[in-house]
Structures are given as structure tokens and as C-alpha cells.
Phosphate acyltransferase
Amino acid sequence: MSDGLTIALDAMGGDKAPDMVVQGADIALERYPELKIILVGDEARIRPLVEKTKRLKAQSPEIVHTEKAIADEDKPSVALRQGKGSSMRLAIDLVGQGRADGVVSAGNTGALMAIAKLVLRPMPGIDRPAIAGFFPTRRGESAMLDLGANITCDATNLVQFAIMGQIFVRTVLGLERPVVGILNVGIEEQKGNDSVREAATILRGMTDMPFEFHGFVEGDDIPAGTVDVVVTDGFSGNIALKTAEGTSRLIGQFLRDAFRNSLMSKLGYLLARGAVGQLRQRMDPRRYNGAMFLGLNGIAVKSHGGTDALGFANAIGVAADMKRYGFIEKVREELTNGRLDRPDEQPTAVATA
Amino acid sequence: MSDGLTIALDAMGGDKAPDMVVQGADIALERYPELKIILVGDEARIRPLVEKTKRLKAQSPEIVHTEKAIADEDKPSVALRQGKGSSMRLAIDLVGQGRADGVVSAGNTGALMAIAKLVLRPMPGIDRPAIAGFFPTRRGESAMLDLGANITCDATNLVQFAIMGQIFVRTVLGLERPVVGILNVGIEEQKGNDSVREAATILRGMTDMPFEFHGFVEGDDIPAGTVDVVVTDGFSGNIALKTAEGTSRLIGQFLRDAFRNSLMSKLGYLLARGAVGQLRQRMDPRRYNGAMFLGLNGIAVKSHGGTDALGFANAIGVAADMKRYGFIEKVREELTNGRLDRPDEQPTAVATA
């Protein structure tokens, strides 16, 4: 791993690639001047785009050339077998070889997870890597995982998600003692399925930990910001995330309809435009772009496929922060110093250690 | 079952009971003049409230007296054993005895489902009753089930939910040929768990049906109104519903903050007030109050526990519509005329019948 801060970008993934990738890198450099970018993709298309930038051009970034790209509709198994030499695979390989600290791609999520798992490998003590994301809440922002990598999860998986999630928000958001909750259909102990009940029992039994276990939370606790980390299986997490995004879009649409309704409301909109813009900014999905793969021996961030340069810059920022604040080292340290031994093996020993 | 339209109300369930129950009944009578109300609960508290109403007082409603009520924190099993003589149990009994066409309660959901199942019994051909609800969409409104009665569901349960759901929106919303989708983490056939994949295969194989099977939908398809009926297990359905409610509240809060931000935005708000009010009305949770228990030999509707008189009146309206449009009879008819035989027994026979 490099001493500096080098991020490899899959320049061919995403609806608006490679343009938004190159422009996104340029925006990210404003916030992270020490950042070194490696672009992976079709050099003939990428180089002219780099020439048009300011900060990125100044560092004459390395371009790893390939014309091969993984399609959005490729199944992960196909991407694994046939994806060698693709922009996504080569970008991940750079992290595996220690030439880059992290990779960001707006390409096929399933392929990215499958290749990242193969190349970077899950950390010792982690059975299944998870996808985590930020979302806006009444209190600021919180993180949720898993968002879709693991459709069914047992109690051990959920406990490992809780542990990775709390280290993540401690390092990246700087929270001192984050509060962790498990997503369920009610807050009472007997609610839900075996996995969530068992995971809650294990987490309740872990004392002397750098986080607080809140217990169960419900769907409306996600936007309320009741906890800093929402732990769930990938099925429910994916549905919750997309339901929140869709509801947000629906209300935006209703709001636009309402303001266009009469002369009076149009005039009101003109005056309140700043306020509405502020709301739009608070809910802007680009602000929360970047889903982090946690539990791998390397940093991998998935950008939304439809995002623009600003959104992609935010995804690069997430990868940069994970490196800056030493997320990987912190997980490794806490997993190996015994405090966070695998909960399925010795939950009681951990609790009384 | 009565020839008219008689609804029994658990007058003691809900945070603001019995006041909001009595006032809600009075509001419902404006929309359903033929409605007959039976109030079940503490007569000494209910009678003075009835005296203060207009329409309800005029019909001098029957009051079935009991001082016993089921608490919100009672487990369903406790409510079943010890709930005899309670307002909820007596109200459901009235439906079981054919003295009322339906029951509405804002009390403990688990208790209501358990007692309704015991007293009213699942219909032949339905393994597990489900809870269904309406929600606002870009296109109007859609229904989703299950919202929490069944934490884990197999393919047969999901197929039965699809069948009950489409009959429900055909009868109550008057849709001619509703579109049904199964909630999943992606729209591709291979996505999700075994239950959703098998259920989709069965539904795809059913031809000549009074509904269209759309396939899988994702979380953001719920508010988008991609389908008329969203089918899901009770775990994901409950989380999706509450996440949408919470997101809606969060944006409302952000919007209020934004409008209070400056003199300009306050002035803008004054002018756009009508428009904002229109938005608030479109998203008003009271409009969508009333979760329907489908698959029982009787009409049972659960109101939100924290609702007010207007919300409770809407829940009564849902029960009244189910009776008016003959929902129970229609399900029974379609289940017994062979068109909708149990899908686990003979999906192909159904398809080719």
C-alpha cells in the first residue's frame, strides 16, 4: 500500500462514463490536493477529457489502457470468468498489487463485489463482506449495512456487520462511541426472525466495547437517526434504501406540482427558492453517493451508475477518507487484538475479556 | 351477515380512545349514511361522547359494555388467553356472530390479528392471512401486503397474497385489471431469495387471470406506483412501509426548517401556503389509515394507534368499502370457482383450465 493517497478509477463504469469519472476526479482533487489518480479505461477517450481539466491535468495522471469493459447486465459469475483485462478488473488489481489504496467504480455492483472479493479477499474474521452507505437523518447522517451484497444473513453475519459498521463511523465520521441498532419489525425483544434475535442477544452480551448497542430499530428510525449504524440483511437493507430514495423523489415531484399550481404559489416559490434549494441540497442523493464495501483487505467504493461528476467526486471522497483515517488498519487491529474476536466462537469470552 | 352495513368499533383501542373512535364514527357517517355503528367499551365513558355528536347520536348506536381492554404491550398469546370479554374481543365476536359486517380497532395489532384469526378463521384456500395497506404514489394509490403479520413467507404464501391483493384492489379501488409485482432487490429473474423466485415462477405460469403479473419490483417502485399491488413478506413490507413514513416525516421537517430560515422564505411560505397545504394533504398519513386483514372470513381493519378522529373515520371507510363492494364474497367466489385454486397444488392445471 502506498504511503500517499492513490485511488484507481474504473473510468468506463457508469451511464455517463468516462466523462463524469474524469470530471469527478478533477472535483475531488480540489478537496483532496494530496490525492493521486490512476484512470483505467480507453486511453483514446480518456486523454482528451483529462486535457480539458485543470487540477487533474496538472498531475498528468497515469492511464492504464484497456478497451474492455464489464456490461451492466453481466452476471457476477460471467464478470468473474470473462472480466479479466476489463477496466473494472484492472482497477481492482491495482489495489490488490498495492499500487493504489482504493478503487472507485460506477459499474455493475454485483460484478464489482464478486471481483473485489476474489482479488482483495475478505479479512480474517469476516465471513461475508457487506455494502454500507450513508443516508441523511434528522440528526445529520447515519450509515446502514448491508445494502444488498448478502440476501440472507445469519446472526454471525449481522454481528460482524455491526462491528465493521461501528468502526467505519468511528473512523470516517469521527464518532466517539457510535450507537448501533438492528433493523426489525418492532423494538420488543421477541420480534422478528431468529437471525435478528440471536444477533441482538450476542451484541447485548458484548460489554466493554467502543460502541453502544441500542437494540432493535424500525424502518422509521432510519431517517429519524435513532442510531448511527443500522444493521440489516441485504434484502431488507436494499429495500429500505430504495424505498427512502423513491419516497424522496415522490415528494420532490409533489412539491414541484404544488408550486406550479397557481400564480400565488409560483410567486411564493420565487421568494422561497433559497429555502427550497437548501432542502434539495440536504436531500441531494449525490451527497450520499458512494457505497462502501466493508470487510475486504482493501478499499472499494461503488458509485451510483447514474451519477454525475459531483456525485462521483463524493464517492472518490469516501474512498479517500477511508484511507486517510486508516479504516482497513483499524478493522484489522480491532479484529486481531482480541477485543473483537469472532462472536460465534466466543461471545462470552469477549464479553468478559 | 347483516343486509345493511354494520361496523363494530373497539372503542377502547388507540392512544386517543374512546374520544377519537366516537368522533371518527360521526365523521364516517357523513360519508356512509347507511352505516350502522356498534360501539364496544366502557359505556360510562362512551355515552357522554356520543351525546356530543350529531349524526351518531341520531342513530342511538348500540353500546356493548365492557370495562376490560387489551393493553398495547400485551403479547398476542396473552391477549388470546386473557382477552375474553375485552372490547377488542367482543367487537370481533360481533363479526363472528354475524351481528356486524366488520370490525375496526386502533388497538394492539398482534392481538387483533391473533383474535381475528381465532374467531373469524382463515378462508379455505388461504394458509396465512395478511395485512394490506394503501400508500400514495405518483400515479394515485397502490396497495401492499403483507405489512407485518407473517415474518417469513414461502412461495405459496406470496402467491396467495398476490391473489388476495388483486381481488382487493379490483373490488375496493375498482381497478379492472390490476398489475401485481413482487418486491425484490432487483428486477432480474435470478435476483432475491427462493421464496420470491418460486412465487414469480408460479405467477408467471398463471394465464387467463383477472390481473397482470409484472414481475419483480424494487423499493423505489413502491412510491413510483409501478404496480397496483406490491407483494412481499411481512418483514420487508413492514420495513418498507415504516421507512417511507419516516422519510416523509423527515422531508416535512426539513421543509419546515427551510421555510423558517429567512424573512424571504417566510414570505414565500405565506404565498405558497396553499400549495404546501396541498402537498401535506396528498401525503397525509390519515388518508391512508386503515390496514386491512385479508384472508379471513370477515372484515377486520386495524387503525394506526396514534391516529385522530379523521384517520379513524378513514379506517371505518375502508371496512365499509370492503363490505359495500363485497370483498369477502368475491374472494370466496374466485377461490372456489376453480380459477384461483391453490397454486401449490396445481399451478399448471390452473393455467390451462
About this structure: The longest strand of chain A covers residues 130-137. Chain A has two domains: 1-126+295-326, 128-288. Chain A touches chain B through 60 residues (CB under 8 Å). Confidence is low (pLDDT under 50) at residues 341-353 of chain A.
